[in-house]
Amino acid sequence: MENNIIEITGLTKKYDSVPVVDNLNLNIKKGEIFGLLGPNGAGKSTAIRMMLGLTEPTSGTIKICGESSIHNPIKVKKQVGYLPEDVGFYNNLTGFENLMFTARLNQIPETEANTRVKQLMNITYLSAEANKKTGAYSKGMKQRLGLADVLIKKPKVIILDEPTIGLDPKGVKEFLNQITGLSKKEGITVLFSSHHLHQVQQVCDRIGLFVKGKLIAVGNIQSLSEKLFSESPVVIEAGIQYPNNNTKKANSESSKLTEIIKKLKGVTNVIPKDNNSFIECKKDLTPIIAKTIVENGFELVSLNKKEYGLDDIYYKYFEGGNTYEK
Amino acid sequence: MIFTINILKEAIHMKNNISDSINTRSGIWGLNKIFPRFNNKGNKVTDPFWVIVNKEIADHIISWRFLILVSIIALTCIGSMYTALTNISNAVSNGNLDDSFLFLKLYTISDGTLPSYFVFIAFLGPLLGIGLGFDAINSEQNRGTIGRVLAQPIPRDYFINAKFTASLIVVSIMFFSLSLLVMGIGLISIGIPPTPEEFVRIIIFTIAGILYVGFWLNLSILFSIWFQQPATSALTSIAVWLFFSVFFSMLVNVVFKVLVPSGNISLAGEKLRLGILRFAPNQLFSDITTSILMPSVRSLGPLTMQQVQGTIPSPLPVGQSLMLIWPQLIGLVAMTVICFVLSYIVFMRKDMK
């Protein structure tokens, strides 16, 4: 337990009795990179703001580095660096001045602050732009400046709220690399919220799926997919040529095939859609299914085996609808 | 113009040095206070509150908005000074009661073409306050800077307190420089120094002006917390200002004309009318300035014949004038405090997104 740097229990926030964050329990270990993955409006930002004491929770407790965010937000904010979504800087000040302002707010002595800011601008490749006004910075530069800004206070935990929004793919890659590098080198715990599953997949040790204010699953990607798809880990997509001059006949043929396949051992569900049938099975049944289709006189056009990635986890849980819609 | 700004910058610089020296934790305390340069600058740690205040002051001074406001006010000052100086000889020869206070006339007389200095201040002061405060919070929210600042280890109220303090410091420095500049120009051109009493009256007038601007500043900060768009909060503040300076007195007078037919004006009715009028901050300020700058003003309300009978027409000493306007002064301070408390509460409860 003492390894947990962030401990959240029963955290709830209601706006007009509508829960935005609903009974959130989460423990994050020291040095971990944790990804909070969820669609827009899931309550990620609200949860993060409560961790910093910027918003008051309706109920529940939050402890970061052993301090309560609700009762002692200043002590928490000394240890935690927070990069808000859509971070802004004072456009009339240079990048260097913006960082010095943050350093002064953290009561870092002037000379130390000076060297530290220069060092951080070096790390984030901004040394050349240090004396440019931040109004002239690109989105990517601003985001890197935001990272430098977060690191000034030498935080034990950094919380990044949708840090990759609006960055181009190259920028995203560089930014994520910097985060992982820092976390490994300095042992900083990182909590990172996003709705981009691929980015989370790239960098995070553990992932929490956060939907409609609830944390529905926590773990690494492998354990998540095992957990979520234990019923039917394999899906086979079969394309079949039905007689296309008669819709009525095609429909009856399709339902006949569905019935036949459903009877096969190991098949958990069959979902017909247009000319394709999605067959969920407990193990790889491709040869048997192919044989069955052909033996029953259907014209098999294609057969595709699908395995689950994070994409499917994402669609299954976030979109809430049919997994195969896309 | 540039001269004024230079003075302001110098003053800010001095201010910074003073606050630095107060907040320095190293070195010998007394020595530091007198000679800021003895600070061990490298290890200097300033309280975060003053860090924000310093930044806000710097922001104000280099902003176009402030330059424009200062130039408007400086230009009108020059204009009113010019009319005052050209008309001062006529004003004295009238044999008025206030003649012994020649210096105060610089602030009050006009020839009818241009309003006098104190009328200008009463008119442009609110504009200055609104101009400095209307986007205090919402622009920071729109730029996304507020979340970053509040994520630093500072109490949340530092932010709004520092904003208010910084604007008030800027206004104070500006008003004192203007008042003293008018005094200096007057001294050079008419060659008569102000008496200590006149000096005290001018200082009280300046402080009252700062309080008055402080009220409008707080009102616009309140609107800047309430409204997401700076344009909305600016318009609302200006609407309130127009309402009080134009429509309020009109409205009150119309209502009283309906209620009290002409010729039937009673003392109690007149007192009530004045009392209601004094809910307007500009009425309070104009009461304050008239009795402070015109020592012959003995009462701000109606007087009965019995009260006037036997009085010797003479100017009031400064203490008595101050007593006369004390309720107005308190009223102005109270309005400012109410606005500030409201903005404080709204700000502390607001969810910062």
Concise account of the structure shown:
The complex is a heterodimer of chains A (326) and B (353). Chain A is an alpha/beta fold.
Total count of domains of chain B: 2
Number of helices, where a helix is a run of at least 4 consecutive DSSP H or I residues of chain B: 15
Shape of chain B: globular
Largest interface, counted by CB within 8 Å of the partner chain's CB: A-B, 33 and 29 residues
Q: What is the typical, i.e. mean, pLDDT of chain A?
A: 84
Give the percentage of residues in beta strands of chain B.
Answer: under 5%
Task: Walk me through the structure.
The complex is a heterodimer of chains A (326) and B (353). Chain A has 2 domains: 4-224, Rossmann fold (3-Layer(aba) Sandwich); 234-307, Alpha-Beta Plaits (2-Layer Sandwich). Chain A is built from 11 helices and 14 strands. Chain A has helices at residues 44-51, 73-79, 95-105, 110-123, 139-151, 169-186, 197-203, 221-228, 247-262, 286-295, 310-319; strands spanning 4-15, 18-29, 33-37, 59-64, 67-68, 80-83, 157-161, 189-194, 206-211, 214-219, 234-241, 267-273, 276-281, 299-307. Residues 321-326 of chain A have low confidence and may be disordered. Helices cover 75% and strands 0% of the residues of chain B. Chain B folds into 2 domains: 1-46, no CATH class; 49-302 and 312-349, no CATH class. Chain B has helices at 2-23, 29-34, 48-62, 64-93, 102-108, 117-133, 138-143, 146-150, 157-190, 196-226, 230-259, 267-277, 281-293, 305-308, 318-349. In chain B, helix 1 crosses helix 9, helix 6 (117-133) packs across helix 11 and helix 11 (230-259) runs antiparallel to helix 12 (267-277). Chain B is mostly helical. Chain A binds chain B through residues 45, 49, 52, 54-55, 74-75, 77-78, 80-82, 84, 86-92, 101-102, 104-111, 146, 149, 153, and chain B through 41-48, 51-52, 55, 59, 62-63, 143-145, 147-155, 351-353.
